[in-house]
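Example 3.2
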Amino acid sequence: MTKTESFTSFRDFYPYYLTEHSNSTCRRLHFVGTSLVIALVAWIVASGSWMLLIALPVAGYSFAWIGHFFFEKNRPATFQHPLYSLMGDFVMYRDMLVGKVGF
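Structure, written as tokens:
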């Protein structure tokens, strides 16, 4: 499947998502960005600093997009499939933690 094709489920999308993250540096940058998002959400909830919610996209996407533009040399799947891509970030993060996807 290509980026412009529709996916009928996240299950169909995720294998494609992984092919768009074959570069290990890109995956590592995604991991850093997602870790920052998780830490930032924990901080926001604990401190009540709700204005920091605007920093979430910057924390997550800046690392991911650097990985795509400079290392993976492709266009982030977020541009065509925003919801599935966001879900893919967290599933790939989990899969990296448990060893199913390499760092």
